[in-house]
User: What shape does this take?
Amino acid sequence: MRLTGDAEVAPNTNLMKPRRNPVRGSCVQTAALGAVGSQAVHQLNRRQLLASSAIALLLSSRVAQAALLKGALPWKPGAADPPAAVTPEGWHYFTPSEAATVEAFVDRLIPPDPQTPGGKDCGCAVFIDRQLAGPYGRNEAFYMMGPFQEGTKQQGPQSALTIAQQYRKALAAFDAACRDKFNSKTFAALSDEQKDDVIKGLENGSFKLDGYDGKTFFTQILKDTQSGFLADPIYGGNKGMAAWKMIGFPGAHYDYRDWIDRHNQPVTLPVVGINNHPNWTQ
Assistant: This one.
């Protein structure tokens, strides 16, 4: 039916023909309406339609069940499924040459200083490697059946490649560009000043990659490095909770009720992660 104002007009079914909708391959009906003439037309306004739908929904709904909680939340230590702790040995997705590039890259995004280790020693490359080897790298949260076509940035990712595949393609193009510009040297073999110049070039678009957008690669690896630096150490980054200690974040405590009214005061709770919390067992 086709809405006309507050009414729907019943189409002439003899004039309806099915048409294949290119979106998701579903079938829709299109109709060319002729003159209604003297035929009787049944009209249903929107208010009646919505009211009848609401009544049907209420009658079909099950009675909600609730429980009253008193004293404390029904939580038992170790009752949940903890994430598997990442061990730093080996690489699950990166090749050795890719891993060397990523380690050198994250160590310039987060360079070490006397108080805090850099991105490499904090495990940011290990974090990215494990993420690419898992659901994140396989785009399991994305619809990946196509059609794939170029979209705007506001429309989100449109690539047929998974994030892991994009990393592999970008790292190959990045390695080739570095070798071409620096007399066959890899990015990891460059001086810190040269590495910083290359990274700045990726960010501002002056350092070009063949077959991949350098700015897109920079944005992706920066985001993933930040995530690895600040995530719980159980995922492979933030080794020794160095990032949390640097910013004064006490970590995975059960709650902070005792600190709600203590404004502008440093939190003096001990820094703990999921894997070393006294109330968490694997």
Q: What stands out?
A: DSSP finds seven helices and four strands in the chain.
